[in-house]
Write a structure and sequence with these properties.
67% of the residues lie in helices and 0% in strands. By secondary structure, the protein is an all-alpha fold. Helix 2 crosses helix 4, helix 10 crosses helix 16 and helix 15 crosses helix 17. The protein is built from 18 helices and no strands.
Amino acid sequence: MPTPTPSPAAEPVATDVTGASLLVRAGAATTHLRVLAPVLVVVMVAMLNVALHVRTYTLVGPIDELQHIDSLYKSPGIVRSGDRIGQDAMREQACRGLDFDPFELPACGTDVYDPAQFQENGYNTAAINTPLYYTATRALGTVVVWLTPTDSLVTGARLVGGLWLALGLVMAYAAARRLGAHRWTAAAVLVTVACLPSVVYPSSTVGPDSMTFGVGSAVLLTVLWWRERPTRRWPALAAVSALVLAVKLTNIVVLVALVLFLLVQLARAWRAGDRRAARTPLVAIATVGTTAVVVAGGWSALFLALAHGDRHDVPMTLRFAADSLDPQAVLAAWGVWLVPVQGWPLVAGVGYSALLQSLGVLLVPAGLVATALFGRPQPGARLAAWSMVAVGAFGPPAFVVANYVLQGSVWPVPARYGASMAATMVVLTILAVRDRGPRWVLVAVAPAAVAISVLRLL
């Protein structure tokens, strides 16, 4: 019996199926690329800015970077209040130099350094921070040292700051998209933010402030995720609250804004007589509040228990000691956290840096003000904006008063202490841009910001 042969029509059918499959796969790949392209652009710009900054800025930064480098080398161990700077950190500063002209350093290559020859009489004034940031950054920084030509842990840790910044920007992008933002509008604003000197600087030097934008983004994204199923996902609020405070205690600012937001929701539900609706914000407030008390209170108690020596031996303590609280110091602090992307040194190309910094001062709080005054279709956006306005305006004066009562010192409140709210402010700015014309303006500004940033760092 002869073997049947396929009909001439059979092959074209098979070919068509294969071609259709390839077209479907190509279409899916194109869709994935279109979705991922804005994220990849944001990540590449963040990493590029940090890498260029690390290459250009080799000095030790004047805002406590020596103390952070010391904690980095001593991680995962706990640095106690009263500890002096170790030899590794002193060697880094002696050989790199300090970005503060009047201060004279010992010579590079000295066998044993004397802590008294370094700022703050050699005391680690950043001991209040937990080892979390330093341990994670040291682990990744060690990998960077293995994979790159650098042999400096400090350089490796600085480069890891690019990862922390990129992660924070990606989470902010995810939050904006979840709230309905156009992907290239979101990417354009975040690319511009990634070029701001007051964002690049802390991300390119050693210190827990390199994680601040990221923890703010994590809080926003977690809250949006929790609100979809509040009865089941409340543990996520506890986890992110613990993370925020473990990175740096001053990040509590974003949690205060969150609790204020929830308190207003609770009051509205209670006034309407809806006890069931009131349960959701009540559980969230209890979760965030309890976590904050346990983590911040527990770490502060341990910090005080481990402290040794006389705190008055630290020049910083004497420099800001006050016998009375000057009302002008309280008034001067009003509203400082409303523009949290400022207060860092302007490095390399001061004119270009000032231009970018001015752009950030306008861009970041713009959505906060617009949303607070004129509202936004997303549920709760206006309330969130007003919560941050309240914390940004009245939080710094409260901080000055609390610092005087608890420590007997008065000093200017840095704007960067409010930086944990910056990510939400940026997302509000993204959402506030509704018309096509302004969106195209933002898309056009982003590459200009990248060009200026690269030019100043080169």
